Amino acid sequence: MDDYNSINEQKRLEALYSYDILDTDTERDFDDLTALASAICDTPISLISFVDKDRQWFKSHHGLDARQTDRCHSFCSHAIQDPEHLMQVEDARKDVRFQDNPLVTGSPDIRFYAGMPLLDGDGYALGSLCVIDQKPKLLTKSQQKALQTVANQVIGKLLLRKNNRNLILANKNLSETNSKLKAAEEKLKEAIADLKESKDKIQNILDIVGEGIGITDSEGNIVYTNRRNQEIFQLDEKSMLGLSNVSSEWNNRRSDGSSMPHNEHPITVALATGNPVVDYILLVSDQNGNSKYLRMNAMPIKDANGTVNGAIGSFADITESYLWQQKLKESENSLQAAISSANLGTWQMNVQTKELTASTRMKELFGFYPDEPMSFPAAMGQIAESHRQLVNDIIESSISKDEPNEFEYPIVGYHDKKLRWVSATVQTYKNPGDNTISYLSGTIADITERKMDEQRRTDFVGMVSHELKNPLTAIKAYAHLVNRAAKNYNDNALEDKISKIDHQVNRMENLINGFLDVARIGEGKIKLEKSQFDMADLLKITEGECLNMITSHHLVFEHTTIAIVDADRNKVEQVLINFINNAVKYSPTDTVIYVKSFTKDGYVHITVKDQGMGIPGKDQGFIFDRFYRVESDAMKNKKGFGMGLYICKEIIERHNGQIGMESIEGIGSTFWFRLLLV
């Protein structure tokens, strides 16, 4: 039996077993049907036969004493092979399939056989309704149709029997479930009664405790509150018992004033984990709207089986002491900032009033005199117009999102008109005594020299790149002349070499253009020459060139099928080659470099994975910055300007793509980019 038939036979047997009919007692409903079939077809024998794995078993056996026979002798086993049609054998002695069958040569001396397959709702032939005679014959058309009708009745009764059995089983399960639910309900009632009894016993004791005490059920609903708890929240017992630990009336907040998620509340944690929570500080509001800092402990209540069915929370009002601690901490932080920011400008601004307080160093950087006031509008006015809106947007974002930011921008001194570049930080904080008042604070550092150094590097790169283009143009012209001569002399070998030289010259030209891109990027002049092309073709070409040029490492390419993008082919190739060259440069000889492309979510993804030195975690966030180079012993002999990855990032992002890397120091790195498919 081939695999397909084997699978179908297995499914057929599973369908048969699902009716739980085999080896069951005789049933009159089925016996009536075999008697009817025998009468209709004028045969002495009629059977309802189910074909098992190694046997055929008779649910009803009219005119025959046997309950089963071996499947290898079964006529019905042949009948179910064509489940849509009646199988008739006019004279089994003349049929090569059955003439040697012991059921033909011996009892019950079968001559005529007709079997109508019994098909269930899924089309599986479970067996057949068959009629048998000891003399040759054929059924008339009306007998065949009637036999089909009786077979349908057999299937109908089989389905009814199955459904009744399932219904009985479902009713049994439902009864068991109802019993369990009733038992659970009784246990819950007992637990609640026990909890109420415990509450009454400790009521008098807890009312004289100096801390607020609250008891909840397993859902966090308050079932008990002592007198001190009611005093803290300025709420009577009846009103409090209608609330839970996370009701909006408490206005639960973290100690920093941010909203507290429900699952972070100490009572919720104690109920969920079964563990106590100790000395948790939170901020709440009483019913008069007054904010209060509470130190809270939460303890789960467990029954004898260790099941958590409630929790106890205790509160201490620490508002006064907490505010004093915060003021002390604020003073300490200000002092530490002043010490550590020896040459940094510092500032603070009231978000509501825009009142700015600036240090002497900050005034100096903005070109103001030390004793001269500097307002927020005046400070914004000294920021170069090209960056003024950006700075304003960052400040507004810090206020609205309550997030710190770090950014760079140029300023022109108020009095000295001197151009300076500064690096600034900004963060928000609230007045501990009044959370409605917010402040911004930050630092200012002079980075003019670094910015000028970057500009000098950019100018140098641009100048050198221009100078390199002249001899490269001459080489390209000479190569063109030699190529023409090779064609004239039909020198195919020389022509092939010149073609490769020309390709490498083009690559060198692209590399020089990349250097020029550094200067253009800074000036916002980089241009993309887009066209539609297949990234799979680009990888195939790159694979051929790399396998010819790179012999120090093992390159493994894995291509996607077709990936059409609308992009600058030369610049995308420049990114890919840069990734591969870096992998060669920073990984040991004879290691494997994997280059892979695949499509996903409307993008083509390109990855280059090496087994090299990896990148330290402290450097990974800056690896795509201009002129950035990792400083380590392993990098001492690695040459470079720190521009390659910066150019790659600019190229991909100007295509509205994404670029990134993952790296583990000492194990290797994976650099990737993705572009939108057409």
UniProtKB/TrEMBL annotation:
Its EC number(s): 2.7.13.3
Keyword terms of this UniProt record: Coiled coil, Kinase, Phosphoprotein, Transferase
Membrane-traversing stretches: none
One of the Pfam families matching this protein, by short name: HisKA
Catalytic reactions on record: ATP + protein L-histidine = ADP + protein N-phospho-L-histidine
Domain PAS: 198-242
Domain Histidine kinase: 463-678
Coiled-coil residues: 167-208
Domain PAC: 276-330, 405-459
InterPro entries for the chain: GAF (IPR003018), GAF-like_dom_sf (IPR029016), HATPase_C_sf (IPR036890), HATPase_dom (IPR003594), His_kinase_dom (IPR005467), HisK_dim/P_dom (IPR003661), HisK_dim/P_sf (IPR036097), PAC (IPR001610)
Record-linked NCBIfam families: sensory_box (TIGR00229)
Protein name from the UniProt record: histidine kinase
Organism field: Chryseobacterium profundimaris
